[in-house]
Amino acid sequence: MTLCMAWLIVAGGAIGAQPTVTDADAKVQAVIDEVEKTCLDGPVYMIGPKKAQRLAELVRRAKPRLVVECGTALGYSGLWIARELKAAGKGRLITIEISSTRAKQAEANFRKAGLLDVVTIKVGDARKVVKKLDGPIDFLFVDCGYANYYPILLDLEKKLSGGALVVADNVGVGARAMDDYLKRVRSKYQSHTEWFDLELPWGKRDAMEISIVPR
Ligand SMILES: C[S@@+](CC[C@H](N)C(=O)[O-])C[C@H]1O[C@@H](n2cnc3c(N)ncnc32)[C@H](O)[C@@H]1O
Questions:
Q1: Which of 20, 100, 149, 159 is most buried, by CB atoms within 10 Å?
Q2: Where in the chain are the domains?
Q3: Cis-peptide into 151, omega within 30 deg
Q4: Backbone φ, ψ for residue 114 (5° rounding)
Q5: How far is the CA of 85 from the centre of ligand 1 (A)?
Q6: What is the CATH number of domain 21-212?
């Protein structure tokens, strides 16, 4: 190897413009931080960083091929999910939002974070949209109006893969309104409730229900 070639290899490694995982992660984190601030200022309800970290951890471990999220808002929780899918090098997120204005804002956020290639946003009532989805769905996250959880679950049950994770937000504050949903997952699936101390303007304590579909 000539001295010139050696220099090129060293320089390429040190100064090269190749983005690293850290660069990509910093880019996503900057968008997450920005969206979090927008939601807090709005307010636009979102899960907040503590529940989001747990959600991301569940996605990381499950390595799902298809995640369905009902209730996109501005894409806050979706950004956490999509970042894990992209890092895993496989998996897609379909996220459903009834408000076209919010869906557009979410799309811009996913694009800015460089995650739009793993995300499909569907605009419409999740109760109707889920009927047209193809399975198998490996991970379902429900966060779109307490009374909608039960009909969404009933519609998607046959499309959930064996071992799929079903995560429902707001099962603390919304327990009464989603009583039908909670009765079903707690009787039919292996299911548990995780509580979180939150630092959100609209709530200080709430829970997520994490359920596993039998194989
Ligand atoms: C709590 S926010 C979702 C927050 C989001 N998951 C996050 O953490 O960033 C609930 C969202 O569900 C949407 N929504 C309400 N009813 C819906 C329905 N039937 N179908 C789809 N989206 C719905 C609302 O417009 C709102 O944006």
A1: 149
A2: 21-212
A3: no
A4: 75, 25
A5: 21
A6: 3.40.50.150
Question: Helices in the chain by DSSP H: which ranges?
Answer: 3-15, 21-41, 48-62, 76-88, 100-112, 126-129, 149-156, 179-188
Q: What is the Cα–Cα distance from 44 to 205, expressed in whole angstroms?
A: 17
pTM (two decimals): 0.91
Q: Which of 40, 93, 97 to mutate to test the pocket of ligand 1 (most atoms within 8 A of CB)?
A: 97
At 131-143, the pLDDT tens digits run 999 999 999 999 9
Pocket of ligand 1 (CB under 6 A): 45-47, 70-71, 73, 76-77, 96-99, 102, 125-127, 143-145, 148
Model pLDDT, residue 6 = 38
The token duo for 166 is: 């079903």
Nearest-CA residue for ligand 1 atom 8 is 46
Gap between the Cα atoms of 150 and 152, Å rounded: 5
Nearest CA to ligand 1 atom 7: 46
Is the sign of the CA dihedral 10, 16, 20, 22 positive or negative?
Answer: positive
Cα-to-centroid distance, 26 and ligand 1 (Å) = 26
Q: What's the pLDDT score for residue 74?
A: 98
Distance 145 CA to ligand 1 centre (A): 7
Long-range own/partner contacts, residues 9-18 (CB < 8 A, 24 or more apart) = none
Please answer whether residues 32 and 74 qualify as being in contact, where contact means their C-beta atoms are separated by less than 8 angstroms.
Answer: no
Q: What HEC string does 170-196 produce?
A: CCCCCCCCCHHHHHHHHHHCEEEEEEE
In the chain, which residues have pLDDT < 50? 1-15
